Amino acid sequence: MGVLDGLKPERVFYYFEELTKIPRCSYHEREVSNYLKSVGEKLGLETIQDDHLNIIIRKPATKGYENSVGVVLQGHMDMVCEKESDSPHDFSKDPIELIVDGDWIKANKTTLGADDGLGVAMGLALIEDDTLEHPELELLVTVSEEVNMDGAINLSDKVLNGRRYINLDSEEEGILTMGSAGGETIEVELPLNYENSDEYIEYTVKVTGLVGGHSGIEIHKPKGNSNKVLNQVLEEISKISDLRIIEIHGGTKDNAIPRETEAKIGIKKSDVESVEKALDKIKSTVLELNKGIEGNITIAITRSADVNKVLSKESTEAIMNLIRDIPTGVFTMIPDNPEIVESSDNLARIDTKDDKFIMIVSMRSSSQKSMDDLRNKIVSVIEKNNANYKIVNQYPKWEYKPKSELRDTAVKVFKNMYNKDMETTVIHAGLECGVINEKYPDMDIISIGSDLEKVHTPEERASISSAQRVYEYLRELLKELK
Fold it and tell me: Which of 41, 122, 245, 449 has the greatest number of beta carbons closer than 10 A?
């Protein structure tokens, strides 16, 4: 018996549970790709697994739809692998432990992988359904969407037959996405200098309790960034003592707002008493600075032991300056629609490793000018602190098209089914639609999905009833695309 047995639609939740049994963090998709290939082959359908592990499963049109424009259904097979600090889960081998809680499916202290496992499961259920009326269908499932869109970027520009494209990677029912931001990542590297000294006592500073979230869709919300919060603690301590960083680590994924950050620092022995007396005040000051942030921020500062090696004053200051001065969050809103984010960045990861300080900053924008302005602002901070950088993982924006027959049909079907208007929007997140649009300029593209909450965090959850409605909607939409 599966955890999701009995949920409707049965085949959607069957396939979703099967996917949760397979480890599929980004860059580790071979096993899930092979599984998807085996599904297509068992269904007796033409199945392609390309050199990058992308999967395409083709199903011929049903009677009466032979001359209709083909439809591509698309999702991605990888997932963001995040877990609570006390979870023993091993993403390299353990299945996701599913929990049904009323109308919601969630996981036990880990991400659920409904982004985009549920979209892929819908695609599989549709492709196997012999009662469905539809044009030629192609189910495209890509790799590495959550990190750099390598799957879509390396997809052949000649492999897809269909020219109607339904991306299944959106996260709100009743909202049709018709454009998305482009993005890039800045990798910062600062060489570090250490000093031998017996004048310091080691302390561990840890910030937890933030809720994190999707660094695109939720970047405008008061999520807070644990890297920034911890740095504020260090700045308060440095007002009392010649603080030195020993090591620092925060954030785990480029596209997740960091929830936890930890640093080991050295405090001069002569300053220990003063710092100890000021700890409560330091905590309250930082908590007051962040009183509007979601979650319950916890700041733990604990004494460890004597140390004999700390970072130099210059290296310590450079790290703190970089974390403080590089912006994170919303940079600009769309001028004609101030409710939609135009450009933003996420100070995603910080790490001391092999005599280097590494910082990862992910950027998104639907405006090239705003992207350039934000990049220039970040680069000026990097150069001021004598760090090195490179730009990687660039992907294009998906520009809104004024004319779209697929969009018009999707909106009409929704209205007929639910007697209410479908909302259409451009989102501040990266979708593979932009990459596909560059490869296939004549492709008519939309993105839809069922209700997911708190994706890219261990509190991710998926609505059962919403998945059922969206699946039925997809069936009707495909029937209408004659």
Answer: 122
